[in-house]
UniProtKB/TrEMBL annotation:
Native species: Streptomyces calidiresistens
Keywords: Membrane, Transmembrane, Transmembrane helix
Pfam families: Tad
Keyword Transmembrane: yes
Name listed for the protein in its UniProt record: Putative Flp pilus-assembly TadG-like N-terminal domain-containing protein
UniProt xrefs under InterPro entries: Tad_N
Chain ranges passing through the membrane: 23-42
Higher taxonomy: Bacteria, Bacillati, Actinomycetota, Actinomycetes, Kitasatosporales
Every Putative Flp pilus-assembly TadG-like N-terminal domain range: 21-68
């Protein structure tokens, strides 16, 4: 039995060597694209959640501040309003009791809307998951207004 060696066909191009690594480049490109989309989805969802959290805290703090009614006016039978002087302290007290695991309330403001409304603005600071490489922290703001329904004073 004899063995024959075949010479490589001189007219066939050597494409096997030219295509090496092209699949790896495509795989790396798509991996980067998928990671970018994942970062967008995760951090975008976190931004929405933190905004909702700031709104929730602002709503509850506004309700808490609006519950501080002027007792002297109530007992005197006059027009009952909110103690606006206590508003910043009441909001700070409520915010101090709120415990957040992945974020912190870094700012709050209380504005009076006489005679029976109070507005609260809350700033929540959080650190994004993927965008944390570019940004140290981000802020989400929420504001709400609460109205104390005091009714009309009874007729004498």
């Amino acid at each position: 039995m004899s063995t024959r060696r075949h010479a490589a066909c001189p007219t066939a191009p050597d494409t096997a060597r030219d295509d090496r690594g092209s699949g790896a480049i495509i795989a790396v490109f798509f991996a980067v694209v998928v990671l970018g989309l994942a970062a967008f989805i995760v951090d975008g969802g976190m931004a929405i959640a933190q905004r909702e959290r700031a709104m929730d805290i602002a709503e509850q703090a506004a309700r808490y501040a609006a519950q501080d009614l002027d007792e002297e006016a109530l007992r005197a039978g006059g027009t009952v309003g909110i103690n606006f002087d206590n508003c910043p302290a009441r909001v700070a007290e409520f915010v101090g009791e709120v415990s957040l695991s992945s974020a912190s309330v870094t700012g709050h403001d209380c504005t009076a809307h006489p005679p029976d409304e109070v507005g609260v603005e809350i700033v929540v600071t959080y650190r994004p998951v993927f965008a944390g490489v570019l940004f140290n922290t981000l802020q989400a703001r929420g504001s709400a207004t609460a109205r104390a329904d005091t009714g009309t004073p009874p007729a004498p």
